[in-house]
Structures are given as structure tokens and as C-alpha cells.
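ESCALATION

Customer reports they have been waiting on this structure for their group meeting. Please prioritize. Original submission:
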Amino acid sequence: MLNRSALSALLLAALSLPAAANEAAIRKAFTDRLPNVKVDEVRPAPMPGLWELRIGNEIRYTDPTGTFLIEGELLDLKARKNLTEERVTQLNRVDFATLPLKDAMVWKNGSGKRRIAVFADPNCGYCKRFEKGLQEMKDVTVYTFLIPILGGDSPEKSRSIWCAKDNSSAWLGWMLRGEMPPKAASGCDDGVLERNLALSRKIHVNGTPAIVLEDGSRIAGAVGAVELEKRLQALNAPAGKS
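Update from on-call: job pushed to the front of the queue and completed.
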């Protein structure tokens, strides 16, 4: 006779079989029908009968057989929540403590107690607009990861800025006033640019500027100083207050 613990284990195993079977069927269906699409994760969606597909940091939905593909957002009308948006936000979260800050240029205003990381390209007009707005921020430390992704002379400009004697001043000089530093010396170690590009791919940075806050949340695009200040204040607000 099975004891209670053994019976519970068997019941849990039995309950997990349909999910495992559906996951296998869905993976096989997508491998057969969309061989060029890499599905990173398959799991039940919050809506009964629906399955979630994670492709990189993007979310799609399908039925239990993998026959239909749904592109769109899943909304919980009762709770008034965008479940897809919440899931994508969770996937995009970055552990700020793991960022290789030694590979970033850094400057600060005031005490610098509030930290943000920014992924930027020197030829990005939105990055220049964002950088100008940042100058209005108080008590902030900004870590800028150079990622030359826009083509043209972005790699050359990035190298010249990074290799300057004071690269943070060189960065601000270029972004705020259009002052380009001298061409980098041939012996300059510019391996940081490849490391930054690899990091940006790893955390799915697809455009510039991309901003990472200390809690790991992200902002895509050139947010204004007022909106950024609201986000930073909310981040540091006591629990239960906004």
C-alpha cells in the first residue's frame, strides 16, 4: 500500500504529464512548420487552453497542438492588466549589479547617488537629445556603454571617444557640442566596443538609447528629463507609496 507521500508524488507526476506532452507537441510542430524560428521557452499562458511561446524576449501564443500562432497582447480585463506587457518587462529586467561598469564611461551630477546605465551610439540623434536632458538631472551617476550599431563612421567615432585621455569628457563634448576628439592612437585597446556589443545582444538591446535603472527595469528610447525624474523618484519611494 502506498503511503501518503508516495501517493502525492504519483498524483503530481500524473498532473504534469499533459503539460509536458503539450510542450513537446508544440515544440515539434514549430520545428516542423517554422524551422528558422528558435522557440526558447514553451509554457502554459495565464489564459486556460492557451500556451505561451518565448522567442528571445518576445512573446507569442499558440494552442495546445501548435497549429495556430497568435501575435498580440493578452489582457486581463477583470484585473485591468496587460499580461503580455508584464511578462516582457520581466524578461527584459537586467541585474544592474552584473553590468561590467569598467567598460562604461562615467560622469555624475551632485551626489551621484542615483545610478543609470545607458547604451548609446555616437551617431544617434535621439541619444544626443537624451544626453542633453540628462544634464538637468540632479544627484545622478550615468554609465554609458558605447555600442556602434548605426554603421557609417560610428565604430571610428566610438574608438576615438573611448581612447581619449578623458573619455567621459570626450563623450559629452561630442554629444553636447559636436566636439570630436583626435583620432585614436593605433595602440589603443578598443576591445571594450566588442564586449559592449556582445553585452547588448545578450540583454536584447535593439536600439539606442536604451536605459537601465538600478532595479533592473528598462526604458527604450529618449525619455525626457521630467519623465526620467518621475521614474527615479518612484524607484526610490518607500514601499506602498508612489
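Sent to customer with the following note: The mean pLDDT is 88.
Escalation resolved.
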